[in-house]
Write a structure and sequence with these properties.
Helix 1 (2-24) crosses helix 2 (32-42) and helix 4 runs parallel beside helix 6. This protein has 6 helices and no strands. It has helices at residues 2-24, 32-42, 50-74, 85-100, 107-121, 126-150.
Amino acid sequence: MASNRHLGRIVALQTLYEHEFRIQSGDKTVNIDDILSSNLHRYDNAIEDKEFVEALVKGVLTEQVDLDIKIQPIAPEWPIDQIARIDRNILRIGLYELLHQAEVIPPKVAINEAVELAKAFGSDNSSKFINGVLGTAYRTLVEGIANDSSTTI
């Protein structure tokens, strides 16, 4: 299942990347369901858990504004619109999994998977950037929440 999910994350990344590219290019016909369906169809025999991919894509899109707001202070020298599109979408996937999928995806897995996506699809420095941002996000947003909720007043 793990390698199946890795491939699923690749398809999710491709889908989110294409969706963002087409929107920013002014494509009025862009439809996330069509993009996702087309990308999933290419791997029809390799991905069993298509619901995982769909939930990841739809979840990232639903939470995108909040994810971007949370990313910005963690990478203050890089305004969100200046982060490479591929890196931006990898960060969104990783942060979405850290914040919204923690009950099924361990934090180390979410970060490692994002780093592996960055190594495969990003630039030479992408994996270090992704690891640093998501590591900080984990410490400040995930561990910080857990520590705050265990404190009694």
